[in-house]
Design a protein that fits this description.
The structure holds 2 protein chains of 2 kinds. Chain A has helices at residues 42-49, 72-78, 95-100, 104-107, 121-133, 149-162, 179-192, 205-211, 229-234, 236-240, 243-246; strands at 2-13, 16-27, 31-35, 57-62, 65-66, 80-82, 167-171, 197-201, 214-219, 222-227. By secondary structure, chain A is α/β, with parallel strands linked by helices. Chain A folds into 2 domains: 1-79 and 167-178 and 196-247, Rossmann fold (3-Layer(aba) Sandwich); 87-164, no CATH class. A 6-stranded mixed beta sheet of chain A has the order 6-7-8-3-9-10, with helices on both faces. Chain B has a domain at 28-251. Chain B has 14 helices and 2 strands. Chain B starts with 15 loop residues before the first helix and ends in a 13-residue tail after the last helix.
Chain lengths: 247, 338
Amino acid sequence: MTLFQATGLQKRFGSRVVLENITLGIEEGTVHGIMGPNGAGKTTCFHLLTGHHAPDAGSIVFAGQDIAGLPPHRIARLGVARSFQIMNLFDDTVVIENVMLALPAFKAQTGRIFGNGFADRRLIDSALEVLDMVGLAGSAWSKTKSLSYGDRRALEIAVALAAEPRIVFLDEPTSGLGVEATRALAALIRRLRTRFTICLIEHDMRFLFGLADRISVIHWGQVITEGTPAELMANKWVARSSLKEAV
Amino acid sequence: MNLSDIPPKGGSPFTLPMAAFLMLLLLAPFLVARFGLYHYLAIEIAIWIIFAMGFNLLFGYTGLHSFGHGAYLGIGAYAFGLFQHNVSTSLWGGLGAALLAAMVAGGFVALFLSHRRGIYFALLSIAFGQIFWFSSIKLHRVTGGEDGLLGIPRPPLQIGNVAVTLADNRIFYWFVAALAALVVIGLWRVVNSPFGRVLQAIRQNEMRARFVGYDVWRWKWLAFTISATFAGLAGALLAMAQNSAYPDVMSLHQSGLVVMMVLVGGGLVNFWGPILGVLLYFLAREVLGSLTETWLLWYGLMFVVMVMVRPEGLAGLIGTAARREAPAPPARIVETTP
């Protein structure tokens, strides 16, 4: 079943057309990769899909509902979560609070002025569970600022997962990671794929081809080709680019 | 040290600093008498504590820098006075009117402010503050213009069949102090509740808060409106204390004063910061003011030095001193190879 379908997306900033015509469908339960050269419009595409920008034209349908142009918080509450390429965390606080703020059970009680959110055992437990998924349960009560780069990346993903989304968008999760950390991340995504539909932008081709069920290649603001990793390897355009050696 | 430090025990507001604060409220009348200061000072301090603490919900916790909050103090004061003059002489009625007026005014202004932040938020908040200040001068028939609203009574406090007159400053102090205690306990609960946590999340990272699923606009609107309402309460008490309301209360000067108190006290890093700031200001005014007429110059200099060397304020200073007493963990030596 197609969980997420974008059709004919267009976006311009002033006179610059960034996205010409983006059409991509993401099947439920799959890992969908997006690749393309720098400046191809991958991140802008993500911004459109998750509501940071409204598209100038085109439709975005998530689980049967048109979400194009909805504000980010509405889209997030429908079950769409994302991580950021440039890390975006709640930095003045402890690790676990980042995750707690995203939990639906926490959001349900934000109206309670006299509530007791952070002393609630069940909330702490479910936040720890999410942190455990990404291997951060041990540093739950550390300052967010004190985390290493790789751990911050992992926390980015944990915050996205905490919202209990149906689909998770990850914007270049391996960016800046070393070999070891990249391998750990791949293992994490393999574990997550049984529970979430995942869409990721990635530069690391070996990483992406090893994980994705389908890949869309974006260039010049449009999807120039799409297919399984095997199909893409057979594609003459992909073959001509330096992609093949990278894998 | 920062505002988001989670109290290890969570729930109960009755911590050691809270005990110290309540004790201070209890002892204040005796302290001012002992040091030869007049009773009215204690009232003033308690009122400004309400104003500054409510203001810090917006300024320190939500990270929205309003420089026009004096307006809501003034609106509270006028609303209280107008209610006494035109509707009826009633304490609760007047307080209710002041809260409502400040809430409505704050809510209205927040409609225009809530999708702004940083310098744009600050400038717009000043602009709206000036509009209210200017209106209070020009709307002669309502506000009495530059003379202000005079002869505002202090209606008696009616509890059941007993009426307590608040005309005496010594008795009025206990009324203001009780409200200040309620406000501080209430705010402590608010900032430590899920509600307060979301406000702090917005301060830390508005974009992330939005993508986690919070309607940031609505939260900012709420924070502004709530803090304006607290300012309204302080304003009503000020009108009672001074038996009058005049445009000066709304001026940019008052708005700046509360910002300065919060910053000097350390409202950005500590819940108790604004209270320290209020105390420091009034003590400086009394002590320095008795020595020299140019006391504000010295207070201003102190503010400059504080911002330069200890931007986290008095509370930050105390926090650092407290940590110094504990032995520092051995520093790890990191060797770097060229």
